[in-house]
């Protein structure tokens, strides 16, 4: 049961590299180009971004003691999307790395605003509500920017940032997203024990010498940095960060902190699978990644919800 | 005998500067009306409230002088068995004290055995099994805590607090949510823990159980108003004044309404 996420990942990884097969049947140089320049960065981003979503989702759910918390809750991903949309529609930037940098700037700005609003105590309800407010405001600002954009194609161009896309990203782009995300994730993982202890409440954690206020600030900061870096390159992808931790906790007997690693594996499998679906769906055109994760995620989430309700019933 | 606990704590606005000294094996009940500072005292002793800047305790709001006075050269904070709590690492703290909050909420569906194991630094299935036996939780060992009754959950959380055999037990209303038989069994358990040299401080509302303790602290309006034996408390004037009760037969009755503190 615990090996399930790993067992899922292997065939998905192989499929992401090999499917569709036809383009690989050509000359050796061409198939090598397709594999290394197109499919490898895409696969790395799918695995890495999915893992980041699962891991940060698990960390934030543990932190807020709430299974409905998700990585987009801190406002960093809406901030990153807003930064990228503003840069492309108003500054006319087109270089992927510059757009990524604008996205990162947007994420950092949203994060600074969150900490300014939450204040020195940074208690959980204030952080949650401030993050939600920033998310909503950044979402509205993004829509406004699109409505006022000089280019009539602004909405089409912004689609990637709003629904997420892993198409045509280069290896340097993948590195720009995944290296900072990996560092932040590794630091988050070191908080697993403290997050598990938080299951007994902040007072018990504090009586054991943990500082719940500091833990809150660290976890929100690290999660936002990891997600912000990925959103700056791939756009915002919903649902994975909400569902992967819920599935992961069923493998860790309900413990929220130690669910981070399985949540990362499940998140990686979910996003790789979703990206495969966007490529393989026989619709003749590419479906946005966020649509697939929502289409797969919603029924899964509702099933979990019903299962929880049945269990709670006497 | 060297005291096990020496503490001098304060929570601005909720708890006046309070000094508590306790010896190994003492069983101390903390009583007082709602909002009188029982929880603040326990949280402060557990090192949950950050130490506030030093300031002199003001005069009591209703004319009663605080019972405790600071000794010369007393250090701020909690000192347990010679170890300063503020300087202890998390593994050291586990052996020094356990704090049981009054809330019985556990947000995650963790099995009872795992919940108890959260009280241990290293996994120790034998210790967990012993604790489950002591609190009759063996049948629920693998049941998620969200599927227990509140009283059963209270027992599971108490088992977690006992897990690392701490020298000081700080229990906030451990008897609420328990049926009368279990309340008495928990008092027996507290006596067993004290017999091994643990000092136990626990808050409670059932005045009828106060005689089971070696010492009683009475809190009112954020100040320690009484510190003595249960017998001394019953004869004390303070008692009626604070609770609006007076002794009647084997128990208590409400004082005449003119004196009752709840009336405006």
- Count helical runs of chain B: 8
Query: How much helicity do the residues of chain B have?
Result: 25-40%
Average pLDDT rating of chain B: 83
> Could you state the CATH homologous superfamily of chain B?
P-loop containing nucleotide triphosphate hydrolases
Q: Give the number of domains of chain A.
A: 1
CATH domain topology of chain B: Rossmann fold
| Low-pLDDT segments, ≥5 res of chain A | none
Q: Shape of chain B, please?
A: globular
Main sheet specs of chain B: 6 strands, mixed
Q: Total number of β-strand segments of chain A?
A: 0
- H/E element string of chain B? EEEHEEHEHHHEHEEEHHEE
Strand content of chain B: 15-25%
For the biggest β-sheet of chain B, the strand order reads 6-7-8-3-9-10
CATH class of chain B, please? Answer: Alpha Beta
Assign a percent range to the helix content of chain A. over 70%
> Element order, helices and strands of chain A?
HHHHHHHHHHHHH
Please write the CATH class name of chain A.
Mainly Alpha
Class from helix and strand fractions of chain B: alpha/beta
How many domain units of chain B?
1
How would you portray this structure in words?
The complex is a heterodimer of chains A (314) and B (264). Chain A has 314 residues and is mostly helical. Chain A has one domain (4-18, 37-312): ABC transporter involved in vitamin B12 uptake, BtuC (Orthogonal Bundle), CATH 1.10.3470.10. Chain A is 74% helix and 0% strand. Chain A is built from 13 helices and no strands. Chain A has helices at residues 4-18, 28-64, 76-89, 96-118, 124-148, 154-163, 171-189, 192-197, 202-207, 212-234, 240-249, 260-280, 289-312. Chain B is an alpha/beta fold and 264 residues long. Chain B has a single domain (5-254), classed as 3-Layer(aba) Sandwich (Rossmann fold). Chain B contains eight helices and twelve strands. Chain B has helices at residues 38-45, 90-96, 112-117, 125-134, 150-162, 180-195, 230-235, 237-243; strands at 5-11, 15-22, 27-31, 77-80, 83-84, 97-100, 168-171, 199-203, 215-220, 223-228, 245-248, 251-254. Chain B has a six-stranded mixed sheet with strand order 6-7-8-3-9-10, with helices on both faces. In chain B, helix 4 crosses helix 5. The longest helix of chain B has 16 residues, at 180-195. The termini of chain B are far apart. The model of chain B is unreliable at 51-75 (pLDDT under 50). Classes of the chains: A mainly alpha (314), B alpha/beta (264). The A-B interface holds A 65-66, 196-197, 199-201, 203-204, 206-210, 249, 253-256, 311-312 and B 43, 46-48, 88-90, 93-94, 97-99, 101, 103, 105-111, 114-115, 118, 144, 146-147, 157, 160, 170.
């Amino acid at each position: 049961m615990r090996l399930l996420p790993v067992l899922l990942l292997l065939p998905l990884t192989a499929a992401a590299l090999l499917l569709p097969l036809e383009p690989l049947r050509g000359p050796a140089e061409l198939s090598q180009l397709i594999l290394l320049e197109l499919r490898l960065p895409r696969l790395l981003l799918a695995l890495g971004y999915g893992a980041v979503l699962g891991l940060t989702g698990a960390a934030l759910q543990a932190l807020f003691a709430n299974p409905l918390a998700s990585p987009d809750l801190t406002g960093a991903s809406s901030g990153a999307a807003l930064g990228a949309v503003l840069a492309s529609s108003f500054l006319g930037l087109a270089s992927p790395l510059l757009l990524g940098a604008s996205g990162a700037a947007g994420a950092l700005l949203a994060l600074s605003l969150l900490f300014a609003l939450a204040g020195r105590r940074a208690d959980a309800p204030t952080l949650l509500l401030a993050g939600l407010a920033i998310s909503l405001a950044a979402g509205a600002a993004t829509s406004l920017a699109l409505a006022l954009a000089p280019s009539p194609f602004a909405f089409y161009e912004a689609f990637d940032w709003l629904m997420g896309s892993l198409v045509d990203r280069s290896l340097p782009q993948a590195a720009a997203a995944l290296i900072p995300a990996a560092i932040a994730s590794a630091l988050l993982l070191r908080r697993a024990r403290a997050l598990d202890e938080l299951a007994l409440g902040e007072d018990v954690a504090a009586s054991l010498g943990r500082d719940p206020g500091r833990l809150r600030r660290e976890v929100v900061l690290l999660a936002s940095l990891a997600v912000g870096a990925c959103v700056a390159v791939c756009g915002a992808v919903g649902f994975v960060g909400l569902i992967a931790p819920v599935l992961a906790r069923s493998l860790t007997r309900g413990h929220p902190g130690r669910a981070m690693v399985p949540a990362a594996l499940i998140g990686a499998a979910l996003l790789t699978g979703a990206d495969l679906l966007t490529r393989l769906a026989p619709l003749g055109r590419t479906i946005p990644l966020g649509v697939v994760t929502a289409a797969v995620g919603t029924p899964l989430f509702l099933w979990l919800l019903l299962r929880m309700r049945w269990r709670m019933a006497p | 005998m060297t005291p096990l606990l020496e503490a001098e704590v304060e929570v601005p606005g909720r708890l006046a500067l309070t000094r508590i000294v306790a010896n190994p094996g003492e069983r101390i009940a903390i009583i007082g009306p709602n909002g009188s500072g029982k929880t603040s005292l326990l949280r402060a002793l557990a090192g949950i409230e950050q130490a506030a800047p030093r300031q002199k305790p003001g005069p009591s709001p209703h004319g009663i002088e605080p019972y405790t006075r600071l000794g010369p050269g007393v250090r701020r904070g909690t000192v347990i068995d010679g170890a300063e709590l503020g300087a202890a690492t998390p593994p050291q703290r586990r052996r020094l004290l356990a704090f049981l909050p009054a809330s019985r909420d556990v947000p995650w569906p963790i099995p009872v055995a795992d919940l108890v194991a959260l009280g241990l630094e290293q996994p120790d299935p034998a210790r967990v099994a012993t604790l489950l036996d002591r609190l009759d939780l063996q049948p629920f060992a693998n049941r998620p805590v969200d599927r227990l009754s509140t009283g059963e959950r209270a027992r599971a959380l108490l088992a977690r607090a006992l897990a690392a055999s701490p020298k000081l037990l700080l229990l906030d209303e451990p008897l609420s949510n328990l049926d009368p038989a279990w309340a008495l069994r928990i008092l027996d358990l507290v006596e067993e823990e004290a017999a091994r040299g643990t000092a136990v401080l626990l808050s409670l509302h059932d005045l009828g159980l106060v005689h089971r303790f070696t010492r009683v602290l009475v809190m009112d309006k954020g100040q320690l108003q009484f510190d003595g034996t249960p017998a001394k408390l019953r004869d004390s004037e303070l008692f009626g004044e604070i609770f609006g009760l007076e002794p009647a037969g084997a128990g208590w009755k409400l004082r005449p309404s003119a004196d009752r503190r709840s009336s405006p």
